[in-house]
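assembly run, all chains below
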Amino acid sequence: MKGKHLLGLLVILGALGYMVFGGLGRNLVYFLTPSEYLQDQARYQNRPVRLGGLVKPGTVQYDKDRLELRFVLTDGVAEVPVLHKGTPPGMFKEGQGVVVEGRFQGGVFQGTNLLVKHSETYQPPREGWTPEEVRKLIEEAK
Amino acid sequence: MQKTASLSRPDGLTWAFLALGVLLLPLGLYLALAAPPDANQGYLVRIMYLHVPTAWVGYLAFFVTFLYSLLYLFRQDPRHDRIAAASAEIGLVFMGLALVTGMLWARPTWGVYWTWEPRLTTTAILFAVYVGYFLLRGAIEDPELRRKAAAAVGVLGFLNVPISYMSVKWWRSLHQTQSIDLTTGKIHMAPEMLQVLLFHLAVFTLLYLGFVRFRGLVAALEEAKEEA
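ok done. output:
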């Protein structure tokens, strides 16, 4: 009876260990970085992918009339131009971490869903800010 | 006679936990609403004061279920099984609240209510396992077999808790890593926000302790009635 229990426990721990540190870990990748994508393009051809990276400062263009958001997504090594149809989420800004769902078409990544990744740091606005500045900040964050 | 009289009412400690929790909860809500806005998220950050404590109570409750399931497997005492089930029930409710508050927080910050990223996926699995725990309890007629099977799920299901907690570090994720990191001890939160969060964690823990003792008593009364 004890031996049977021990064997069962070992099998479960082994399966969990494989899940966490083995094969499943590699397949559980939630998003690719631009350089990973560009290295292995054939594998992801015509498949929807999620690309994750930072919004390169100075590259954001938003066409309000056509609801077209263009920016460059970078992981510090490779850069990918992104075209996203729709309004940017509230917390979208230059230098922000984002995840874009979509697929490549003609060298441009066509985003269908734009997710903003925020940091684990929580800080109130710095001291010395005027109430107007704080209000502006809060309105922008909405 | 005396024993049934003492069994039919919650003891002083249970009342104390419940009363303190219920009395301090409005104070916690006031503190949360008075807390400063976040530099990036503005007032949205206040969802954290509900989201983090509900998730914490979920984890804590499943841990208690794990402990009492183990105790039951060793001692075969129905009392341990009752506490394990009571705690799993409360854990399921609070984990559900954590999922709901998380979704309400995700929509304005990330841009979507739900996405199948590692933290969300492992938490959904965790929730489903404890739904299964109660399906299993409802499906087995023989009390002894029911307790044993439930204890097995209570022990194995808990393995998902550390996986869920560590998922933001082990895998690439959309969810931010822990702001109060128990593995490194680092805290990425301004003191005035941290104090409010710690207050909420304490209040929710008190409520959990009160709930689990109360639910355990109700379960004991139910069992006594069935046997009579």
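Chain B has a mean pLDDT of 91.

Residues 37 and 211 of chain B are 32 Å apart (CA to CA).

not gonna interpret more than that til we talk
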